[in-house]
Amino acid sequence: MSEGIIAAIYVAAEKGAGVSGHNSVAVRAGKGIVGDRYYSETGKNRSNYKGQPDWEITLVEAEAIEEFNANTGNQFHESDLRRNLVTRNIRLNDLVGKHFQINGTKFYGVQLCEPCASLQKRLGVRILPDLVGRGGLRAQILGNGNLTVGDALETS
Q1: Would you list the DSSP string of 40-105?
Q2: How many domains does the chain have?
Q3: Are 4 and 13 in contact (CB under 8 A)?
């Protein structure tokens, strides 16, 4: 079993809106993070990858952001990458195709959350190809629960 922690939580209420930090959020299976732009009252998927919804929650390693900043001379805040959960001490790439849990809520790692051209445009600097393979994880939420900064992210 490996274990990381949730270092920060971010939500954007609307498409294109800035993200806001939260100490705790509610998550719902098949719907996403309550209050996030992708949360769906109907449970309809925004997109999917190989039949799995990939929009419900996104994660990124704090270490990847720090390494990117150190290597490029940038000073991006962790929220600038627009991922929902910032983690520490866990390799998210290893969770693709695997189950994990946070505070008793189960998740499934659907695919890598690669940085896109729109994020590069928003940040105004070249992030590609530097963050390819380090942009985070898209995951499916398999249960209802609450996530809090400091919670353990556990794998089996």
Answers
A1: -TT---S-EETTEE--SEEEEEHHHHHHHHHHH-----GGGG--SEEEES--GGGGBT-EEEETTE
A2: 1
A3: no
The domain in which residue 106 lies consists of 3-155
pTM score, whole prediction? 0.89
Per-residue pLDDT of the chain in tens (156 residues, 90 and over written 9): 679 999 999 999 887 788 999 999 999 998 899 999 888 665 455 666 666 667 899 999 999 999 988 988 888 889 988 899 999 999 999 999 999 999 999 999 999 987 766 665 666 666 667 777 788 999 999 999 999 999 999 997
Domain harbouring 92, CATH code: 2.40.33.20
